[in-house]
Amino acid sequence: MGKSVLQIKNLSKNVGKKSIVRNINFEVNQGEVFGLLGPNGAGKTTIIRAIVSLISRSSGTVLINGTDVSVDFKGTISEVGAIIENPEFYMYMSGWANLQQFARMSRKPISEERMNEIVSRVKLTDAIHQKVKTYSLGMRQRLGLAQALVHQPSILILDEPTNGLDPQGMAEFREIIREVSAQGTAVLISSHLLSEIQQITDRFAIIEKGELTHIETMSDIMNEAHAKYLLKVSDVDEAIRLLAVIGVEANVVDDRHLEVSILEEQVPMVIKELMVNELDIFAVTAKIGSLEERFFELTEGGSL
Ligand SMILES: Nc1ncnc2c1ncn2[C@@H]1O[C@H](COP(=O)(O)OP(=O)(O)OP(=O)(O)O)[C@@H](O)[C@H]1O
Ligand SMILES: [Mg+2]
User: How many whole angstroms from 244 Cα to the centroid of ligand 2?
Assistant: First the structure.
């Protein structure tokens, strides 16, 4: 695992007497895509705004590359690229002119070569000299990404970035995020959609009612998700008896189906055992619903 780029320690935010988020702790490593998953109103945007100091923190510490943002705000924030809510542009200027404007304000010098490189990465080369008002939502979102990335930050922070994008727009967006993280940039992304978090993150935190309740690693979840198989067989009772002999526990689903929790590499063994005993197998299906079931467990009722 890469080194820690962002560390959040005991972050809390109160507004008046109301506690909005409490004791949030997590870190995001180099090259990692980390998600904040939670329903509407859980506190995701509040956490993100507090990280980038768009709102004050009531308590807690935010470190970027090991430096406390309240000790060196300018230095640390120059290592952050963010899209929070909708990116804002000068609509009557071209994408390129918007990017130039942003580059001029940057603390780090940004070459024209770097600008061309990022424009190409977000696939806007053909449209970059058109006025932004002619851009589709997906193109504006990609220009936002270019703006957030042009100064080569250590971490990219995105609050619900695919809201409003169509499936193709979402897929293109995910591809860019993957490329960016593969080059070592850390990414923090919030969403209320399980499917989005599932497709894009390496690890994610579940945020519920202002608290971080779990941190999960996607590969662990996927392994668990694939460990349940549904078998359709000619004789359920006989199948259960045979599987018990080889130490595989099976549960009856109905008079033709049973469910087994096994590793993928045990599947052939289970099939062979049934076949040599002349049981017919009509289907073996990996239970794709398991990830959602797992979330249901994690969120104790599945409000997501
Ligand atoms: N300045 C504020 N004053 C009072 N309440 C606030 C303030 N800011 C946020 N809240 C409340 O805190 C809760 C968390 O809001 P937040 O916007 O962080 O949630 P979210 O997880 O981003 O939700 P969504 O998925 O809808 O974007 C909400 O109930 C919101 O109404
Ligand atoms: Mg929000």
Answer: 49
